Amino acid sequence: MTVYLRSLETAVPPTVLIQSEARDVFAAQPGLSRLGSRLVSTCFDSAAIDTRYTAVGELTTGSRAEDPQFFDPATGRLLSPSTKIRNDIFAREATKLFIEAAEKAVDAWKGLDRGEITHLVTVSCTGFFNPGPDYKIVRALGLNPAVQRYHLGFMGCYAAFPALRAAKSFCDADPDAVVLVVCAELCSLHVRTSNDPDTIMGSALFADGAAAAVISARELPDQPALMTLDHFETVLTPVGEEAMAWNIGDEGFEMVLGTYVPHIIDDHIIGALEPLLSRDASLIGLPYRDIRHWAIHPGGRSILDKVQSRLELSDEQLVPARETLRNYGNMSSATVLFVIRHILDLPAADGDFSGRAAGTGDDGGERICSMAFGPGLTVETALFTKITTPRVPEPDVGPERPGVPRAEQALA
């Protein structure tokens, strides 16, 4: 059975963080050592990020909060709110993003009756509350109160894949199922000043955002889908349990993102891809760059560098991941869906590939190989097929005649 992604939409909070401005604030904190200050400048400048978005409006230098909890612009000092204060903000602000992304995804499937949604899967690792985001979405969107609800919490950056895999399983089991998947993360709630390299790296990379998708196996010839969900695999690398972790502290959640993570990925990415690519005989032994699209979770610039080098991918194939990182930062679970959205927005490629063995589906669609990394170290991988409409060549109308639109020339 073919399972389709019918819509995919994204949302970000309104406050923009300029990377260079954030760097200057973090580097100027009074508790930093000389080494810590240099690490801040290095991490922020080398992150390949220009802008990020945050649900914490007072993190910008232009904010004027009467009772600042995260940043005092009068003194330039970053503050240390408790985990409870941070989580209370998560409950309020994440709800907005969950609902906004869900609304956009449902509305993008023209003609879908909201009462037809049978399953709802929500994802987040940056906060907790109950009744949770699944409940809030059902109420806000007016979904059937009997919709089956599931929440994937605290899994980390790879969690969009278990959510999509669950959606595919629901649709495989019930051809009439319609599954709404929503990821929303407020990573910026947990930033803090520190001399610790892992904490500094997290402050330089992480941001807020949400993405939502509607998945179904329903065949709708008059409503082309965006892509098919083909295969998923999970691999745990033999090392790396201590190199990437996500813990709960008294002053927010504490990210461990060791500098050795890119090297672990470099050593084990080939083995992590083998179970996925073996699911399609035409991809076995194929040079990786011959798979047209690569939707890589941009955990950081150095991770993307290692993936590109090890798989010998072209600069063009890394554009969706690098542009997502540059414009949005690392939004944990939602990020890879931003990358996929970028790929889906690309125009259909010219016919320089032929057949599935060159990254093109039997129906003319373009293959997408996707992967994300998270605590463990866990590598989640997926194969998708972007559904494309064949390009209609422009008619040969001869030399352009001045003053006559080309459309009229074609009819002449």
Short recap of the structure:
The protein has 412 residues and is an alpha+beta fold.
Explain the overall architecture.
- This protein has 412 residues and is an alpha+beta fold.
- The protein has 2 domains: 4-216, Thiolase/Chalcone synthase (Peroxisomal Thiolase, Chain A, domain 1); 227-386, 3-Layer(aba) Sandwich (Peroxisomal Thiolase, Chain A, domain 1), CATH 3.40.47.
- It is 34% helix and 23% strand.
- It is built from 11 helices and 15 strands.
- The protein has helices at 19-27, 34-46, 83-108, 133-141, 160-173, 197-205, 261-277, 301-311, 315-328, 335-345, 406-411; strands at residues 4-11, 15-18, 51-54, 71-72, 77-78, 119-124, 148-153, 178-186, 208-216, 227-236, 244-249, 252-257, 293-296, 366-374, 378-386.
- It has a 9-stranded mixed β-sheet, with helices on both faces.
- A hairpin with a 3-residue loop joins β14 and β15.
- α3 crosses α4 and α9 (315-328) packs across α10.
- The longest helix has 26 residues, at 83-108.
- The protein is globular and about 60 Å long.
- The chain starts with a strand and ends with a helix.
- Residues 351-359 and 390-412 have low confidence and may be disordered.
Task: Based on Cα principal axes, name the global outline.
Answer: globular
Structural class: alpha+beta
The tally of strands reads 15
CATH superfamily of the largest domain: Thiolase/Chalcone synthase
Estimate what percentage of residues fall within beta strands: 15-25%
Q: Count every helix, treating DSSP H or I runs of 4 or more residues as helices.
A: 11
What name does CATH use for the topology of the largest domain? Peroxisomal Thiolase, Chain A, domain 1
The largest β sheet comes out as:
9 strands, mixed
CATH class of the largest domain: Alpha Beta
Q: List the helices and strands in order.
A: EEHHEEEHEHEHEHEEEEHEHHHEEH
Which radius of gyration do the C-alpha atoms yield? 22 Å
Domain unit count: 2
- Level-2 CATH architecture of the largest domain: 3-Layer(aba) Sandwich
